[in-house]
Amino acid sequence: MTVEAVVFIIAAAIVLIGALGVVLRSHPVHAALSLVMTLFGVAVLFIAQDAQFLAAVQVIVYAGAIVVLFLFVIMLLGVDRAESLTIEPIRGQRPIAAVLGVGTLGLILCAFFVAGRRHITGKVADNLTDEPNINQLARAIFGTNVLAFELTSVLLVIAVVGTVLLARRPPRKLPESKGDK
After folding, report:
1. Which of 33, 58, 128, 153 could form an SS bridge with 43, CB 3.0 to 4.6 Å?
2. Cβ count within 10 A of residue 96
3. How far apart are CA 179 and CA 181, in angstroms?
């Protein structure tokens, strides 16, 4: 077995364990830390594909800034309270979520079957020119995919505004004591 295969297996195991931790952990802070583990595993996979810039961005932006933002939102919203799981805020959301989950799983399985029939090269850099990957990334983000890039930035702004609105609770009225009248 080559060194590249061993690195891939270890990094893939880190990514899968971290992803399972994100989904299965009941404490939201622990889930966020599992997300950090997943992001570091993905950064190792980027390095294995000779995409050092993407690995650095993965660690600095996602594992650093985005997870800190998640932790800030978790602390701001105070998710340490227990809520009843029997009350549904939106009627029928669980069956719809189940249907969407099964549909997504079906799409992923179809993608695996289609990809399994095609020849896939080992490295991303095999099909590229000698141009640095930063230039290729800049061309992809700000050239062909600029609309998706801008929509993502709008989505992040909407998420922050939504978080602030959810965090603003109406002030509680203190119970009046009998002597304060």
Report:
1. 58
2. 11
3. 6
- For residue 111, with 0-12 CB atoms within 10 Å meaning exposed, 13-18 middle and 19 or more buried, which class applies? exposed
Say which CATH topology domain 1-79+113-126 has.
Four Helix Bundle (Hemerythrin (Met), subunit A) (1.20.120)
Nearest of 20, 18, 44, 43 to residue 33 by alpha carbon: 18
Residues of the chain with pLDDT > 70, as a percent, come to 78
Q: What is the pLDDT of residues 22-55, one digit of tens each?
A: 999 988 888 889 999 999 999 999 999 888 888 8
Is 50 in contact with 124 (CB distance < 8 Å)? yes
Q: How far apart are CA 39 and CA 98, in angstroms?
A: 27
User: CA torsion sign, 155 to 158 to 164 to 166?
Assistant: negative
pLDDT at 10 over 90: yes
